Amino acid sequence: MLMNKKNIMENSQYILNCFDKNTFFGICDCLNFDATIEPLLKDNPRRFVIFPIIYDNIWAMYKKHEASLWNIEAVNLKSDLEDWMRMTDEERHFISYILAFLAASNGIVSENLVKRFSQEVQVTEARCFYGFQIMIENIHSEMYSLLIDTYIKDPKEKETLINATETMPCVKKMADWVLKWITDSKATFGERLVTFAAVKGIFLSGNVPSITWLTKRGLMLGLTFSNELIFRDEGLHTDFACLLFKHLDQKPPLTVITHIICKAVTIEQYFLTNALLVKMVGMSCEKMAEYIEFVADRLLNELGCPAVYRSSNPFPFMDLLSQQGKTNGFEKRVRCRLSSVAPNC
């Protein structure tokens, strides 16, 4: 659904309010949630050993992620700094804010995995995935930090970006909302899992088109390649969250799920079309908002909810990027960029 920019936030807030009216009733339905009878969460005496595999699809997802390992040495940033200096002030500002947003989001994800999910989930196969994901999140964090450190030379600006959750209101808004959900002792595991899927599928993946759009001129090859690698990982993390959700016996009501996803859409649209203004790099704010809605509808469907926005994908190149991550050629490219095997490629 294409809208004038001035109506983007009004439309998102209207949709959010529609579901917010019913949220109380959904939360009431969740008050009887009992982790002791939830298959994924109940005490599992055999959680200390892996075999025999009970959840084949969860184990398969873990092995798929295991096969996608990469490290920051796979990314060459030598030419990026020269390209960075040739960019406009608006383009540099845009990339800086995107990296700050992504770094903050990633840090919150890691904390949630370490402090809550990896301790709550008692299924061995899922614990294996979370253990590997924590390592991958560390790689993402290191990559974001290296990108900021490489591009930003002014110490004050660098400090602002590193502490974005305190120095940037738009990033703080995102962080406060996510932390409210994942630290809430009254929120059910299912509600927090939906929030986690929203962070991965909307916040982290939603920023990818803007970087891809900006780098389509053949500039910033290191940023582009790291963007591809992280995009692939985030897609897998979103898929895993949805897979675990499908295994839950006690799921949140559809109104609660929809409310969480729609709130994430509102925050992401505000960040990209109001706080950051993707038009600074030649992107349409309306199309960017539409893409976020498209991603949200797809996520809602995976979580068993009907689509809310019914928006189409305005960026065909994102479909190509998704397919690229599934090809053997892409995997070979990753392996050949890994420092440990590069001489043999």
Uncertain regions: pLDDT < 50 for 5+ in a row? 21-29, 339-345
- Give the beta-strand count: 0
Mean pLDDT: 85
Radius of gyration: 20 Å
Percent range for β-strand residues: under 5%
Q: How many helix segments?
A: 15
Largest sheet: none
Shape: globular
| Helix fraction by DSSP (H/I, runs of at least 4) | 55-70%
Strand-and-helix sequence, N→C?
HHHHHHHHHHHHHHH
* Alpha-carbon distance between the two ends: 46 Å
| Structural class category | mainly alpha
Topology (SSEs and partners):
Blueprint: H1 5-30, H2 56-66, H3 80-86, H4 89-120, H5 124-151, H6 155-162, H7 164-167, H8 169-182, H9 189-206, H10 208-214, H11 221-247, H12 254-275, H13 285-302, H14 316-324, H15 328-337
Helix pairs in contact: 1-12, 2-5, 2-11, 4-5, 4-8, 4-9, 5-11, 8-12, 9-11, 9-12, 9-13, 12-13
Written account of the structure:
- By secondary structure, this protein is mainly α.
- 70% of the residues lie in helices and 0% in strands.
- The chain is built from 15 helices and no strands.
- Helix 9 runs parallel beside helix 12 (254-275).
- The longest helix has 32 residues, at 89-120.
- The N and C termini lie far apart (46 Å).
- 41% of the residues are buried.
- Residues 21-29 and 339-345 have low confidence and may be disordered.
